[in-house]
């Protein structure tokens, strides 16, 4: 996804977390949110974002609806489902376990 | 809308086919517009801004394909992949596969065999138009608790037919034996006798020539006709259409062959069909006098059996010699079969028994699958660890079990084919053999496919839910040795065998 080679599969986690913290939001909002929050370190590749959103919706983790955006254009807004919220929780724990493990390896001298 | 986005619209118009696509296009359009606006806000020129926004997407077709893949792959490719995988797993565990497929084949085979009998004796309707309108008539003495009395077809048929024609179209049938000679060959044949309207009331069309008609009711030397049964025509005359118009002698009386009945039609009773059918009136020429005649018929549209029976009864009682007898019209949609009442209960009991047998077989297969699931825990753990969803693992396990059941079902149909004939042979031998056609028909095949798939799902679901549910990634640390993964069951068996022989 990003230029700096973050593990694949992380995109789902980032998307889910964004939806959790920002509520119903459209695809462009997700991309800019991730970019802004990480000070441009992580840039979501748009060619991956929409397939990912589609896949997540197919798996029932998120749902979508067409609404009018802040610029009064119609846009598709996404939000977490209950299933997605549970999945996010377990993914977050999983992520923390993995990064902690990686950190321990790096700190081992 | 910005003019420099026209390319997207052209592209859209060219490839817009599905809702998914048009939704996607709208969504991307919004995204690009938003990005362009932000780019301009951050100081780019409009053209530069739009170009940069588009560039972010890369190849749009590739993206659309990836999205479609998410849909199609999940169902089709996923299914095919599961099937391929299931075939491979079963192929690599021949002992296991043979055991479970044979178990299922026995269970499904027994169920199918008995269902074939139930179908032939109790369910299947006659191959005529609207079989549910068909009735047979019986006369009962009113006072003696419904005891059956003889309905005298010779005497009563014309009266009943004329009197009740507004409610029911009646025909009369009988049967006898005769020696037929055709060319140099003489053989004993069964002879059916029918009133001229028999075939037209049933709605049966000839396979060749014509069938009996009203005008054949008048029996003259110039008009003595016979209709061949299709099976007899095939066996005796090799299906030669030129026999129509030639003569066949029955007890040295010649009849001219006018036609052949259609394949599959064997009369209105589940007895072997008459080889030759001639008009009822011709009987007096060679049968010694009187023979018993059955009266059957077809209800007129909208007439119930009770209505027809009451009209027939009033006609019947108007005759001086039948003052108190009543006529009963019995449903004959399935064909007359005198042992139907006798076999109905035993057959359904047998059906229940083999259904239980099938359940036991399914349970056995389920426990075998479960036992093997333990041996496959390593494989499942790895698949979970590299990101397989629980649903997809359950789907794969389910594919395996349905495949087992379908293989078992296919083998079971072969067993049933043989089994049903054997059971028919067991019920009665020799002349009293069951006159049932136990060739599996479409209904039997649908039945078997359904129970195969259903049992596959039933015995697959339990292990599938256990396997997909219990395994989690940390568990894979305690993996069983890898030799247990592939041919585990088989190798384990041989190991046991070697140890046993060493003693």
Explain this structure.
The complex is a heterodimer of chains A (109) and B (503). Chain A has helices spanning 10-22, 27-37, 46-58, 82-107, and strands at 25-26, 62-68, 74-80. Chain A is α+β, with helices and mostly antiparallel strands and 109 residues long. Chain A has a single domain (10-107), classed as Winged helix-like DNA-binding domain superfamily/Winged helix DNA-binding domain (Arc Repressor Mutant, subunit A), CATH 1.10.10. In chain A, a hairpin with a 5-residue loop joins β2 and β3. In chain A, α1 (10-22) crosses α4. With 503 residues, chain B is of the alpha+beta class. Chain B folds into 3 domains: 3-58, no CATH class; 76-123 and 339-502, no CATH class; 131-331, no CATH class. Chain B has 14 helices and 11 strands. Chain B has a 6-stranded mixed β-barrel with strand order 3-4-9-6-8-7. In chain B, 35% of the residues are buried.
Biggest sheet statistics of chain A:
3 strands, antiparallel
Please report the two chains with the greatest interface, counting residues with C-beta closer than 8 angstroms to the partner's C-beta: A-B, 21 and 26 residues
| Major sheet attributes of chain B | 6 strands, mixed, barrel
The pLDDT mean of chain A sits at 84
First and last CA, distance of chain A: 31 Å
Indicate the percent of residues in helices of chain B: 40-55%
Count, helices of chain B = 14
Rg of chain A from C-alpha positions?
15 Å
Task: Count all strands of chain B and give the number.
Answer: 11
What overall geometry of chain A do the principal axes of the alpha carbons give?
A: globular
């Amino acid at each position: 996804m990003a230029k700096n080679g973050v593990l694949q599969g992380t995109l789902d986690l980032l998307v889910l977390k964004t939806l959790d913290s920002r509520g119903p939001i459209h695809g462009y909002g997700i991309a800019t949110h991730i970019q802004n929050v990480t000070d441009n370190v992580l840039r979501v590749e748009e060619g991956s974002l929409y397939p990912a959103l589609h896949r997540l919706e197919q798996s029932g983790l998120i749902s979508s609806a067409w609404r009018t955006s802040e610029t009064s254009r119609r846009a598709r807004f996404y939000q977490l489902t209950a299933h997605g919220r549970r999945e996010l929780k377990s993914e977050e724990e999983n992520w923390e376990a993995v990064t902690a493990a990686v950190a321990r390896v790096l700190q081992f001298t | 809308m910005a003019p420099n986005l026209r390319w997207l619209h052209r592209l859209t118009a060219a490839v817009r086919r599905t809702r998914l696509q048009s939704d996607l296009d709208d969504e991307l359009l919004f995204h690009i517009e938003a990005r362009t606006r932000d780019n301009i806000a951050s100081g780019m020129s409009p053209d530069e801004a739009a170009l940069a926004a588009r560039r972010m997407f890369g190849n749009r077709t590739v993206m659309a394909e990836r999205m479609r893949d998410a849909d199609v792959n999940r169902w089709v490719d996923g299914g095919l992949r599961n099937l391929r995988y299931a075939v491979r797993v079963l192929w690599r565990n021949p002992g296991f596969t043979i055991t479970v497929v044979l178990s299922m084949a026995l269970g499904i085979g027994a169920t199918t065999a008995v269902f074939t009998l139930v179908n032939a004796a109790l369910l299947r309707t006659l191959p005529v138009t609207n079989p549910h309108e068909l009735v047979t008539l019986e006369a009962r003495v009113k006072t003696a608790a419904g005891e059956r009395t003889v309905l005298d077809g010779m005497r009563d048929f014309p009266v009943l037919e004329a009197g009740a024609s507004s409610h029911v179209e009646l025909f009369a049938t009988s049967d006898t034996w005769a020696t037929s000679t055709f060319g140099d060959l003489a053989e004993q044949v069964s002879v059916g006798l029918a009133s001229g309207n028999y075939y037209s009331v049933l709605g049966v069309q000839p396979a060749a020539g014509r069938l009996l008609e009203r005008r054949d009711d008048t029996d003259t030397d110039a008009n003595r006709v016979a209709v061949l049964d299709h099976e007899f025509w095939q066996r005796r005359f090799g299906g030669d259409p030129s026999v129509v118009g030639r003569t066949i002698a029955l007890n040295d009386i010649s009849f001219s062959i006018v036609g052949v009945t259609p394949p599959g039609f064997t009369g209105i009773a589940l007895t072997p069909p008459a080889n030759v059918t001639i008009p009822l009136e011709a009987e007096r020429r060679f049968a010694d006098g009187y023979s018993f005649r059955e009266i059957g018929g077809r209800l007129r549209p909208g007439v119930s059996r009770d209505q027809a029976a009451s009209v027939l009864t009033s006609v019947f009682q108007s005759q001086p010699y039948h003052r108190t007898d009543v006529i009963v019209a019995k449903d004959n949609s399935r064909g007359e079969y005198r042992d139907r009442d006798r076999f109905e209960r035993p057959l359904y009991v047998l059906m229940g028994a083999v259904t239980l047998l099938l359940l036991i077989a399914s349970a056995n297969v389920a426990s075998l699958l479960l036992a093997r699931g333990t041996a496959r825990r390593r494989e499942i753990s790895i698949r979970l660890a590299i990101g397989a969803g629980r649903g997809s693992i359950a789907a794969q396990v389910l594919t395996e079990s349905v495949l087992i059941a379908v293989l078992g079902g296919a083998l079971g149909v072969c067993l049933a084919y043989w089994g049903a004939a054997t059971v028919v042979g067991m019920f009665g031998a020799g002349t009293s053999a069951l006159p049932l056609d136990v060739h599996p028909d479409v209904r039997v095949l649908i039945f078997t496919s359904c129970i195969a798939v259903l049992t596959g799902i039933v015995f697959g679901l339990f292990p599938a839910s256990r396997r997909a549910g219990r395994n989690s990634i940390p568990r894979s640390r305690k993996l069983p040795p890898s030799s247990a993964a592939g041919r585990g069951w088989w190798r384990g068996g041989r190991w046991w065998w070697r140890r046993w022989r060493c003693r």
